[in-house]
Amino acid sequence: MGKIMVASSTMTIFILLVIVTITIPRTEAGIGEFDDFLKNQSQEAHKLVLDSYVPIPEEIADDLNVHVNLLMQQRNNTRRELAQKGKRKRGPCEATNPIDSCWRCQQNWAQNRFQLAKCGKGFGRRATGGLGGRIYVVTDPSDNDMVNPKVGTLRHAVIQKGPLWIIFQRSMIIRLNQELMVTSDKTIDGRGANVQVKDGAGITMQFVNNVIIHGLRMTNIRSKNGGMIRDSVDHVGIRTKSDGDAISIFGSSNIWIDHLSLSQCEDGLVDVIQGSTGVTISNCHMTKHNDVMLFGASDTYNGDKMMQVTVAFNHFGQGLIQRMPRCRFGFVHVLNNDYTHWQMYAIGGSAGPTILSQGNRFIAPFNTAAKEVTHRDYAAKGVWQNWQWTSEMDVFMNGATFTPSGSPINKSPLKKAFMMKPRHGSQASRLTRHSGALNCMVGRPC
C-alpha cells in the first residue's frame, strides 16, 4: 500500500508539472520572448527535474546524517590517537564536515580539481558539473559584450557546449553588466584565487541541469535592465529586468552551491524557484542582508511541490534579517547550520512546505519580539498546524524557540547505518567553522 501511495503521489505531481510547464510565467523568468528554443529547453529541464525528484526525501536526509556521523567518529578517533602519542598540535588543514573532508586536506587538490565533483551530499548530490570535460581558464575579468562574449571571460566560459570545469588564472573582480546565464554541465571553481563578483548582476541557472558553483565572493549584486543576452552558443534572447539575486535557480535540477561568501544584494542571496529540485547549499557564509534565501516564489505555483533542497553546514552571520530560508511547498532539510544572527526570524514559510531541522544552533537576538526561529505566513493556525515542521537535536540559545507542527517526519528504515542520528546542534559551530570562500593556495592543503 505504501508503494502505491508514493507512486500515486508522484504521478499527481507529474501531472501538475506538465501543466505548469505549458504555462511558465515569462515575466518571472526574465524572458522577453519565449521562443521555440526556450520552450524546448524548458520542457527538457522539467523532464530532468522529474528524474531528479526523490519520492521518499527522508532517505536523502538520513544518508547525509550518516556521513556527518562517520566523519565525527573519525575525528574523535584521530584525537584520541594523537592524545595517546602526546601530540597536541593540529595539522595545517582541518576539514570539519563530510563535504570538506572529501577533498580539502589533499595537498594536490589543484592537480585533482575533479575530486570536488565526487563530494556533494544531500539533494544536490548528483551534481558533478564539468566532471570529465576540459578545463577553461578565465583570464579576463571584463564583461562588455552580452551577445558575443570575449574569449577568456567568465561569460564566454559558461555558455560553451558540454561539460566544462571553469577556473581562474588569478584573483580578479568581475562586474557583470547583465545576469550571467550558466548552461548545463558546468563547474565554476574559484579555488586558488580571490574571485569577487560584485557591483553588477548575479548568476542565473534557468532550465539547466548539473551545475556546481564553488569558492566565489559575491556582494552588492544589483538589478539590471536586461536586453539581448546570449544564454548558450546557439541562442540569443531578450531578457527583461533582472531581480538582483546573487544566485538564481529557476526550473533547474542537480545544482550544488558550496563555499560562497554572500552579502548585501538587492534582492535575495540564493533563490530556488519555479520547479527546481535536487539542490544543495552548503558551507556558505552569509552576512548583511535582508531576504536571505527564497525557496518557491509563489503560493499558487504547485510545480514547487517537486522542490527538494538541502541547506547544510552554512553560517548565517552578522546583519541578517529573515528568510534563512523562506519556503513554499517542497521538502527542505536544514542540517547542522550555525544561526548566530537574525533580526526577524530564521526559518519561515507558507503553502505547506515540509521542513526538517536537525542539529542546528540558533542564537536568538536580544529583541524579545524576535526570539521565535520559525515564522508562518498567509495561513491560520488551523491550517499551518498540519504542516510538517520538525526540530531534532537543535540547540536554542538566548531564548530562541522553535514551534513544531504537523506529524513527525518519518525516517525510512533502509539500512541500519541510515538510521544514525545527526550531530547535535552543539557541534554546529565546528561543522561550519570554515564556511564561505576559502583562501586556497596551490601546492598546499586548502
UniProtKB/TrEMBL annotation:
GO MF annotations in UniProt: metal ion binding; pectate lyase activity
Signal sequence annotation: 1-29
EC code: 4.2.2.2
InterPro entries (UniProt xref): AmbAllergen, Pec_lyase, Pec_lyase_N, Pectin_lyas_fold, Pectin_lyase_fold/virulence, PEL
Pathway where this protein functions: Glycan metabolism; pectin degradation; 2-dehydro-3-deoxy-D-gluconate from pectin: step 2/5
Cofactors, names only: Ca(2+)
UniProt cofactor note: Binds 1 Ca(2+) ion. Required for its activity.
Keyword Hydrolase among UniProt keywords: no
Family recorded in the similarity comment: Belongs to the polysaccharide lyase 1 family.
Protein name: Pectate lyase
Gene source species: Vicia faba (Broad bean)
Taxonomic lineage of the native organism: Eukaryota, Viridiplantae, Streptophyta, Embryophyta, Tracheophyta
